[in-house]
Write a structure and sequence with these properties.
This protein is mainly β. It has helices spanning about 5-10, 40, 70-75, 180-185, 230-235, 240-245; strands at about 1-5, 15, 20-25, 30, 35, 55-60, 65, 75-85, 90, 90-95, 100, 105, 110, 115-120, 120-125, 135-140, 145-150, 155-160, 165-175, 180, 190-195, 200, 210-215. About 10% of the residues lie in helices and about 35% in strands. Strand 12 (about 105) and strand 13 form a beta hairpin. It binds fe (ii) ion (FE2). The site of fe (ii) ion (FE2) has 5 residues, from loops. Keywords: Gluconeogenesis, Glycolysis.
Amino acid sequence: MMKDLRSLSGMDLRLNEEQLRLNFGADMFYPDGEVRTLQQARPMLADTQAQGPDHLYTIYMDIGRKEDFPAIEEQGLLYGSVVYNHGTLGNERLRSQGHIHSEKSGTGLRYSEVYEFWTGHGQVYLQKECAPDVTRAYLVPFGPGDKLVIPFGWVHLVVTEGEEPVSFGAWCARENQLEYAHLRSLGGPAYFFLADGTLARNPRYTTVPEVRHATPADFPLLGIPTDRPMYTSWQENPELYTFMANPELVGDIWRDF
Ligand SMILES: [Fe+2]
């Protein structure tokens, strides 16, 4: 089935739920979708031999309206999108591998990203440290229309729930690199998210806090409006997103979060 994402995303997008792919209107620029497979995600799973769908998710980096491309590039921004499969990987809920973002040189701060969910349900998992000792971990439930700014430097991943494919958009910095290696060396996040709704601790961590439950509204949105697509609010007021490429303008407001 094709799902119309125009009013939620602010762009000419449709979701092909069977193929886990986006269809783009004639006024859009976009790359070929990259498929992430179960094979690639195995080092990050509780059970590295887990059975599950081979096609985990499809990623589109750098999409937008053709007429907007010069302004997006000039501002150092990049808009990406991901479409997830649903189901389980062994006894875990289907999820992304998790990563951290690269540091902007000279600032001591890692890049952020803004998520906007379009379809499906699940939780964003946030973990403050990408290290064996963790001081903060959050699970943040999401549904269509929810937006969330990822705290600078935190591990983040998306855990899916239910039968409907999760799809979302994300604004981030063009310079940002996704870093997987350190989290992979820890065997994934500090917790695994089991199909029965419980959590299992990753034994490779030394200190792990209780997971706190929070809502998207508990996290600073830095002035990004919640009543319209973040692509639309960028078109109306690009300055709202200047902090994406310039984390030093904000400072680490999540330091004591
Ligand atoms: Fe990210």
